[in-house]
Amino acid sequence: MKKSRWTLVLSLVLVLSVFLSACGGGGSNNGGNNGGGEGNGDSASEQIMNLYATAEIPSMDTTQATDATSFNAMNQVFEGLYRLDENNEPTLGVAAEEPKEEEKDGETVYTFTIRDDAKWSDGSAVTAEDFIYAWHKALNPETISPYASMFGTAGIKNGNAIITEGDPLYGKVEELGAKAVDEKTLEVTVENQVPYFKSLLTFATFYPQPKAFAEEQGEEFALEADTMLYNGPFVFSEWNHGEGWNYKKNPEYWDAEVVNLEEITVKVVKDTATSVNLYETGKVDRATLDADFVDQFKDGEDFSTILEPTMFFLRLNQGENEALANKDIRKALFLAYDREGLVNVLLNNGSVAAKYFVPKDFVKGPDGADFREFAKDGFFADQGEAEAKEAWEAGLEALGTDSVDFEFLTTDTELSSTIAEYAKEQFESKLDGLTITINKQPWKQFLKLEDAGDFDISTGGWGPDYPDPMTFLYMFETDGAYNRMGYSSEKYDQLVSDAKKETDEAKRWEMMQEAEKVLMEEDIAIVPTYQRGLAIIQQPYVKNYYVHTFGADASYKWVKIEGK
Amino acid sequence: MGRYIGGRVVSMVITFLIIASLTFFLMKLLPGTPFNNQEKLTDTQIVQLNEKYGLNDPVAVQYFSYMKNLFVGDLGVSFQQDGREVSTIIGERIGPSAYLGFQSIVLGTIVGLFLGIIAALRHNSFLDYGTMVIAVLGISIPNFVIAGLMQYWLGVKWELLPVAYWDGFAYTIMPTIAIASIVVATIARFMRTEMLEVLGQDYITTAKAKGLSSTAVVIRHTIRNASIPIITIMGPLVVALMTGTLVIEQIFVIPGLGEKFVNSIMTNDFPIIMGTTLFYSLLFIVVILLVDIMYGIIDPRIRLAGGKD
Amino acid sequence: MSMKQEKLDELSDHMFQPANTDALENEQIAGESTGFWKDAWRRLKKNPGAITGLIIILIIVLMSIIGPGMNEYSYSQQDLSRAKLPAKVPVLENVDFLGLNGVDIRGTDQYEAKGVEEYFWFGTDGFGRDQWTRVWQGTRISLFIAAAAAFIDFVIGVAYGGISAYYGGRVDNILQRIIEVLIGIPNLILIILFILIFEPGIFSIILALSVTGWVGMSRIVRGQVLKLKTQEFVLASRTLGATSGRVIGKHLIPNVLGQIIITTMFTIPNAIFFEAFLSFIGLGIRPPEASLGSIINDGFKSLQIYPHLVLWPSIIISLIMIAFNLLGDGLRDAFDPKLRK
């Protein structure tokens, strides 16, 4: 009796262990494709790159995507008329040659010819109609794209009118200044010429979609790897949404011979420490670091930093807060903030202290000089704590008080919390009588409060949507959608709106620089803090990994693995 | 018994509907839109996008259309993963979570029972305190710290196990240990208490008095009877673990449901929030019912209310 | 026969004394009477595990009160020139294996490298704030949150569970279904809503913890009361005409009390942990205030590079957890009349 009981227990344990190992075995079979190149790495320089992404791909529908992960993936598997090259200049993509330009009634008509060998991954040709189909879809109120405003930004005729409710053209997508003349000829009419027109065409919103296939797929289009067609250097060989996705070289790509990589694996990794650990064990070839890991890796040869054209600043709610409406108070805040400590110790990732608003290494003017050659070191570059205190005293006197309270609105991410804590200490320790209360909110609530003007100081960040200073400067027009702090200056508005219309590049450039000066020096409307840097480690055998300053993060088209 | 179960099922459906409704309205109180580039959208664009997704309708209208769809089994499509069915997403996410949860429960229960039994049999000795400290150690350090340490030492330094990903049995070991540590603590503590309770019962004295060896008493009477109430805590535990844990999934890069759920709440992905909540609560209600029924069958001392037919 | 007679004769009256007939004296208990509490305390004292737990808790509570004031640094004072220093303690710095000599895991003496003369007993964090002060300050806040949450759980849980079980039937059924609904609603949504309504901070966190925190307590109380209310002594008391109030107050509550206290002991560490989880997803305490959970979470990212940021708060959180568990187990044994020897 006793014996049989024990046998029962034993056999149970056995059954369980068999079951468990069976489960495990099954798991390892279906996922064995990753890291296969490891270990027996004798087959030197296999053209496989292993990467990770910090988020899932939300959408592969070019008209619906809004986020960096999607745009980056799309840049590898799709292609528009142009694509960005190594130097972030537009180079020919699907377009066979530079377009013919024709002036007509103050409008410019560009005629693009689509290259004959531009094909979708099923072998069908990329046609002008495919572009029209995608563009109309993006503007149609039924299927409107969150980036629909890009058509207006590009100056394409009626692009703005079609998405403006109440406009007689609202919803009439066929009125868009773009038409398919024949299968391979696309005519685009521009009513307002912008210098960055071709760069914009590299953006996902302007990609074509395979009309016949998309209509056949209906709702399923672009939801899975096999419900879309690709016309870029790579195709999706696998897309396991929550887990990751794999690319494979696209043999149908017109420029397939310059594409080296055979395969790219991407996993979704959200934790920084995990991604670094994966890098150290050779599971990924490139990883982004935060401040602490920089200390550990900064002396290695695989370490580098990239300066991105993304700006961080503090919004000062001068519309609602009486104290912040005082220019001296704003000046004191501007000057009291020690940006060096922030970028060198807390961020420690190649970020640059910024006393300016239009980033450096972003765009070059007509004379070939960086925009940032103007006020190179920012505004009030030679002033510091002493001047801050002076301005603060003057401000308090004007207000007739000796203490001020500000609510500092920030989000729940690690980084913004750090920045808020630092700012609080910077301001409170240098400006007597100032109390800062940090209000940390979930992202969506943060946006709601900021939009409603329910804050005194808030953390802001802005990355460019197109390669022009205007993508930053238009934010602070009076009542602009992104102003959110009640800033209003007639002079600034005038300069910005004039610059938008100006066709003489040199003059336009001057106007924008003047506008920045008004915003920063005359009005001290915001407190810029830093321009974001990115600290990365990348295996030395990964070559030609080109990083972009706007649109997609990078291009894998030219990447090759050498000397692994 | 039949009538009892029938009654419970009816009340289960009601409970389920109440949960669905309350969650729906509470969720609608969350601020902001479900669009993930909200900071770059102008107010007009937000209105247009809301229109497109029917989010401009009064909440009551949205509610009824949601409930109507729910009855035909349509959970809607995700906002964050544009256009994908909620049921597909939950389907592909639940696998890893359930597998890990199951494995952790098996491991945790075995270790937990073992520790609990030892502690109770050596009551108030240092073995007792020792096993309890070991049991509690697992839950006394936040499990993201345990996970991080394991990943660094076992994965990077000693290269014994893969750092992360979801690619087979070896990949499940570290996350399983991290999750099982919670189970161990719970089960061990509970088992110890129940064992002590049973050891004080008269029938144990009787068994000893009639000359049974102490091993027989422990195995046949004590452990068996002490294990029965474990079922009551296993139910909720199973549901909680099978549906995934955010922290572990994030650190070990496991495409599970826990991470998706927290993320959906943070990004206002309404259909995913609802779908996951309903899935979770359905599982929970059913498990509670099963536990109650099983309990009645296993332990003859407990009679279910109205079960006299 | 005759022998017997003889022996009887030998017994004379003077050999006997009258027995004490005072009935009261008969009932006299020689030992000191031990009430419920006294008895429990006496048995708790005999339990070395529980006493160790109690002492650790007392020390930690004491340190959370005096710790932040033990050096001249404040919890919010930043100085980036002394950021991320490892721990360094006078005297103990000479004992190498303790790792309290200001040398980081890569073998550099960070104090020397950064030219810092002072001693930071637990090191400094990324802002150069003194970890010792922050950790004890954080302990104070964590314990406060936990105690408040435990108190709320106690009040609601006991009342809810008691009512549910004592009245039973339909009342019980309805109350239990309400619990199922409460558990079914994701409490992260509730927490976010609380933070929106009441602003982030201690108050929202305590509320968030309390929304469903009491459910465990109520289930335990309910289970116990259900078991007790059908037992003979309750029946006897009823038969003798005791009111509901008396039955609950004199018979049920005292018998459930042990379980209640134990559950509370376990609620406290759980609350500390839940707060740590909230910090993990960024919804915790309002900076620059800190809790143990938020300190660990901040340090977690640099676990591999600056382990001291996680080490010290983790040790304290573990001690709290272990101590409360040991004390809880000890209390359970002390309160359980069946375990009396």
From TrEMBL, chain A:
Q: List, alphabetically, the GO terms of the cellular component aspect.
A: ATP-binding cassette (ABC) transporter complex; outer membrane-bounded periplasmic space
Question: What is the name listed in the Swiss-Prot or TrEMBL entry for this protein?
Answer: Peptide ABC transporter substrate-binding protein
Q: Does the keyword Signal apply?
A: yes
Q: Which family does it belong to?
A: Belongs to the bacterial solute-binding protein 5 family.
| Gene Ontology molecular function, alphabetical | peptide transmembrane transporter activity
- Presence of keyword Ribosomal protein: no
Keywords (alphabetical) are:
Peptide transport, Protein transport, Signal, Transport
What PROSITE patterns does this protein map onto?
Answer: PROKAR_LIPOPROTEIN
Q: Transmembrane segments in this chain: where?
A: none
Q: What is its main location?
A: other
- Lineage: superkingdom: Bacteria
Using the record's annotation, list all stretches that form the Solute-binding protein family domain.
97-481
What InterPro entries does the annotation carry? Peptide/Ni-bd (IPR030678), SBP_5 (IPR039424), SBP_5_dom (IPR000914)
Q: Which residues form a coiled coil?
A: none
A Pfam family this chain is assigned to: SBP_bac_5
From TrEMBL, chain B:
- Name the record gives this protein: Peptide ABC transporter permease
- Membrane topology value: Multi-pass membrane protein
Transmembrane feature ranges? 9-27, 100-121, 133-154, 169-188, 230-252, 272-298
Which Gene3D superfamilies would you find in this protein's record? MetI-like
Name a Pfam family for this protein. BPD_transp_1_N
Q: Please indicate which superkingdom the organism of origin belongs to.
A: Bacteria
Task: Give the record's keywords alphabetically.
Answer: Cell membrane, Membrane, Transmembrane, Transmembrane helix, Transport
GO cellular component, alphabetical, reads: plasma membrane
InterPro entries in alphabetical order: BPD_transp_1_N, MetI-like, MetI-like_sf
Q: Name one GO biological process term.
A: transmembrane transport
**Assigned protein family:** Belongs to the binding-protein-dependent transport system permease family.
Q: Which NCBIfam families match?
A: Opp3B
Q: Where in the cell is it found?
A: Cell membrane
Q: Mostly located where?
A: membrane
Q: To which species is this protein native?
A: Guptibacillus hwajinpoensis
